[in-house]
Automatic annotation (TrEMBL):
Occurrences of domain HTH arsR-type (ranges): 1-87
GO molecular function, a single term: DNA binding
Protein name, per record: Transcriptional regulator, ArsR family
PROSITE patterns the UniProt entry points to: HTH_ARSR_2
UniProt signal peptide: none
PANTHER family linked to this entry: TRANSCRIPTIONAL REGULATOR, ARSR FAMILY, TRANSCRIPTIONAL REPRESSOR SDPR
Keywords associated with the record: DNA-binding, Transcription, Transcription regulation
Source organism per UniProt: Neolewinella agarilytica
Amino acid sequence: MDEIFKALRDPTRRKILQLLRDGSLTAGEIADEFDISKPSISHHLDLLKRADLITVVREGQFLRHHLNTTVVEDLLRWVIDLNSPDHEK
């Protein structure tokens, strides 16, 4: 869970996740949305992948990045559970 929160702490990584809501993208397509270097985007993608917030699938010569909705759903359940009256049980 710590890796997830570390990944979500950065606004660039949060924006990448928002971009991936609409479908998979290559690193180049993601980089086109930012005014930072491609190596910086690669670093952000690596942190998101290590946190299991995204998955990467090879399609021909391209690597497509996908939002891992399973981890996002688990995180949301955890946050909702924190607010639940019986979370102490």
